[in-house]
Design brief:
Layout lengths: L5 E6 L2 E6 L7 E3 L2 H15 L2 E5 L5 E6 L10
Parallel strand pairs: 1-4
Antiparallel strand pairs: 1-2, 2-3, 4-5
């Protein structure tokens, strides 16, 4: 299975989960919360990142599942 980052993005029918580089949605949900849950499960399974976009399309949050490419220093 490929490690595609999962993006939660606005969609005409609510909110969609899209794999990075994909033009089509993996799934479409009525609420952002439902889309986040689906994206998180997929990202955990793949060991990838989940990026949550706001209604304006800008990334507002990102979470890494698996090996973090930018671990916190300290």
């Amino acid at each position: 299975m490929s490690k595609k980052n999962q993006h939660v993005v606005p969609h005409q029918s609510g909110w969609a989960v899209k794999g990075a580089g994909s033009s089509r949605a993996s799934s479409v949900h009525g609420t952002q919360r439902e889309a986040i849950t689906a994206a998180r499960e997929s990202a955990i399974r793949q060991g990838s990142e989940m990026l949550i976009h706001g209604e304006n399309g800008r990334i507002r949050e990102r979470n890494t599942y698996g090996k973090d490419p930018y671990p916190p220093k300290g």
